[in-house]
């Protein structure tokens, strides 16, 4: 396993992060090959082998969450944090506690502070972003937003993410500026949404001055990325971040 993406951002040297691709594992089609999601119908043994391959590259086991497309943030330093903990964001202030988020079109958002004391990972699906996951995660982390930086990983691009009017309204009701992230689709009542822009707007409004990454499209690159919108039955990739 060596085909992963390392965030290009000026994080402190004790902050480590990576984003896996679909390559380097043992799963068979349609989950080929480094599927890390145990809830998508893949063979359980294959997923375990894939997670073991990932583990070789990490200082500890990732703290997986039970993601529910919500806005809850889990502090993984707690002793009662387990893989059954429901949440779509995680943060840590201890070394070798690895925040992990699974995605396959939704936007992974990684956070760290400039002092290298706190890291976080957010599952930025449209429901989470519209529901306020950015603000809730920052509040839970207890860190001054002005000291934070963010990195946006691969997600479905604005040329492919078609949504209904109800999704557009969910964002505009929170912030009128969000209208800039939608353009009319080919069908009546449909819009193309830009998750990257929506996240950038929310991070800026939350007080985070520096946002990096963004723009890599999962839908249009089947050789490297899983995409639920493109394939339906498919695997999941992971965004991970930790302190050393």
UniProtKB/TrEMBL annotation:
Keywords: Hydrolase, Metal-binding, Transferase, Zinc. The keyword Glycoprotein does not apply. Pfam families: Cu-oxidase_4. It catalyses: S-methyl-5'-thioadenosine + phosphate = 5-(methylsulfanyl)-alpha-D-ribose 1-phosphate + adenine; adenosine + H2O + H(+) = inosine + NH4(+); adenosine + phosphate = alpha-D-ribose 1-phosphate + adenine; inosine + phosphate = alpha-D-ribose 1-phosphate + hypoxanthine. CDD domains: YfiH (cd16833). GO terms for molecular function: copper ion binding; hydrolase activity; S-methyl-5-thioadenosine phosphorylase activity. Belongs to the purine nucleoside phosphorylase YfiH/LACC1 family. NCBIfam families: peptidoglycan editing factor PgeF. This is Purine nucleoside phosphorylase.
């Amino acid at each position: 396993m060596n085909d992963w993406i390392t965030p290009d951002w000026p994080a402190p040297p004790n902050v480590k992060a990576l984003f896996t691709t679909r390559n380097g594992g043992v799963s068979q089609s349609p989950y080929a090959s480094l599927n890390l999601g145990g809830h998508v119908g893949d063979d359980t043994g294959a997923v375990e082998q894939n997670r073991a391959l990932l583990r070789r590259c990490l200082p500890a086991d990732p703290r997986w969450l039970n993601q529910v497309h919500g806005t809850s943030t889990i502090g993984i330093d707690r002793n009662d944090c387990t893989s059954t903990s429901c949440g779509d964001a995680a943060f840590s202030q201890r070394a070798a506690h690895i925040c992990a988020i699974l995605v396959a079109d939704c936007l992974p958002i990684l956070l760290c502070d400039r002092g290298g004391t706190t890291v976080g990972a957010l599952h930025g699906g449209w429901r989470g972003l519209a529901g306020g996951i950015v603000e809730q995660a920052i509040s839970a982390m207890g860190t001054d937003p002005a000291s934070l930086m963010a990195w946006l990983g691969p997600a479905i691009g604005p040329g492919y993410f078609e949504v209904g009017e109800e999704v557009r309204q969910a964002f505009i009701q929170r912030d009128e500026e969000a209208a800039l992230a939608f353009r009319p689709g080919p069908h009546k009542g449909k819009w193309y949404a830009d998750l990257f822009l929506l996240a950038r707007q929310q991070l800026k409004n939350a007080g985070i001055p520096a946002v990096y990454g963004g723009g890599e499209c999962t839908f249009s690159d089947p050789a490297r990325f899983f995409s639920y919108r493109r394939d339906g039955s498919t695997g999941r990739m992971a965004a991970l971040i930790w302190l050393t």
